[in-house]
Amino acid sequence: MKLTKILTKKLTSFWLLSLAAVAFVFLLCAVMGFTQLTYTFQQQKVAELETMLVADYQQHGNKQFSTWLPPLLTAYKAVDFSLSHNSQLIYQFHHEQPSASKSSLTLYKSSLSKGQLLMTMTLPPPFSLRNFGWHELVILLIGFTSIGFFVRFGYGWYSRELDGIEQLAQRSKLILDGHLKQAADVPTNGKPRMINRAISKLLAELDDAHKERGRLDQFIRKDTFLDKQTQIGNPIFFQNRLDGLSHHQKMVAHGVLMLIEFDDVDLVEDQFGEGGVKAMLSLTTEAITAVLMQYEDSIFARRSYSQLAIVVPQLSLLEADQLAQRILKTCIALPFYGIGNPDNFFHLGCAFFKAGDLQLQLVEEAEMALRAAQLQRVNNWFMYDKGALDEQIAKGSVRWRSFIENALVSKRFFTLQQAIVDSDNQIMHYEIFSRARDLQGNDVRATLFIPMANKCGLMPQIERQVLEQVLFRLMSDNTSSYSINLSLDSLTSRAFVRWLQSTLLEHRPLAARLIFEVSEDIIVKNQENISLVKTLDMLRKMGAKLAVDNVGQSVVGTHYIQEYHFDLVKLHRSIVRRVHQRSENQLFIRSLIGGLYRAEVKVIAEGVECFEEWQTLKILGVSAAQGEFLEQRSEV
């Protein structure tokens, strides 16, 4: 990270500059001292020569100067020398040195022997006469090597001492950017260690606080939507989910509703107490939950004191019959000996529904089927006779696979869009929905072909065609953003992920206007799936946004929202439906938004159908919404 090296660069640059300045000052002083010392030494030699001249003149006059002066002047490296007696030249010496320029020569004039003699001598600069020998060069080399070694050692020591501060700067930047997990993973062995330990402790406590907040949200959901004895959905949860499967009180998909009732529960409570009833219900719900594990989006709740309810959407009539038989056999096999009449204790009523059926009528049909099973006075199940079924529902899996494969080859999948509107009635982006056309040109609902495509493993191919259409739309529209739902098969398919990665790399500017939606159920059930985590991380790094939808459909914690860095959270329509009349749903939304405080996550409501719902959601703090009240879907 570039920003975290600013302090080290500044301090080391200041230290090196200071060291260079000190070295320069010392070197300058040494040069000046050497120059001054050589001049002083030259002046001393000139003074000695003057003394010798005066002594020789007083003793011998001017007769012997020519005998001893030339060797001495040659040793002095003198260029010119003249000696005059009463303005009369008595001796002159000249030695040419081509390497010395006249401007650099030093001139000495002296009056000797009380003014009787006048000496003039020109000498070269004293420091120019010094030549470095090999031993002196070795000493200089050792000195500079030692300086370089100590400079390198000092720089390394400085860097090591500042590593801790760099770590602090790096961790601080990660914290400010909201990457708390990465900040906690940064090594903390640098100095000052106490500050690093303090930050690590605070990050650990903050992470625990986030998890505690998620546990609190889960507790609120459990206390609001779960039955305390059986830990399955309560009547509020059942009604919310049933409302989520309907639109204007009409079912939006096909499936089956089952009502399970235990006879003589009051007698069981009198005989075994409340603990016995709880144990019986817990044993039964655990067995039924194990049977329902293979059915996605199934709803299991306790409707009343002695009645359980099961809703399994996207199920054919034949599959509903098989499921009812399995549930009956599983419950009959439970150890209910000594509890009332074990042969007439358990009854199951089923009502098959298709899209367009009234919700109230469906519940009445299930209750009628339950009463019919009870009239038989034996553990049994009964299916309400619906009559003619939807022809599309009745298709077998082989015919569905053939239909989907032909639709993929002939590109008969198309898209619809629905606007997501913020609290200022401005369009944030559009959500993309898929449809298919059969050979007669009729539209096939996604609620029909998506479950079959999941069973056949064809969802990656369908979602690839949908994405291609969305990318083409983005190229012609420079302003809008679109959200696309991705299935678990697509997110974990290597071929689909490789294609998606190469496509986003090719159209990198478009990635910022894409939002990929993943169901909460997929995230919660596949948190240990490394390929899923890597795919989500890749999409986020490419610049696309991530959204989690169907939030509130299941009773789970919400800590995963910040852990996986989701940008948008979409409330399930069962939480939004009639929210202005349901305080428990309002409590859940308040808790969710409170848990996302300070996080850059927007909460969006799905399935808004009336003005009162939208007004209540805005008061609760929901950022945007989509639904029939805000905008109708239109084909792209």
From TrEMBL:
Pfam families: EAL, GGDEF. SMART domains: EAL, GGDEF. Residues 397-636 form the EAL domain. SUPFAM superfamilies: EAL domain-like (SSF141868), Nucleotide cyclase (SSF55073). Residues 253-386 form the GGDEF domain. Keywords: Membrane, Transmembrane, Transmembrane helix. InterPro entries: Cyclic-di-GMP_PDE-like, EAL_dom, EAL_sf, GGDEF_dom, Nucleotide_cyclase, Rev_trsase/Diguanyl_cyclase. The keyword Membrane applies. The keyword Transmembrane helix applies. It comes from the Bacteria. The chain crosses the membrane at residues 12-35. This is RNase E specificity factor CsrD. It comes from Shewanella vesiculosa. The gene is csrD.
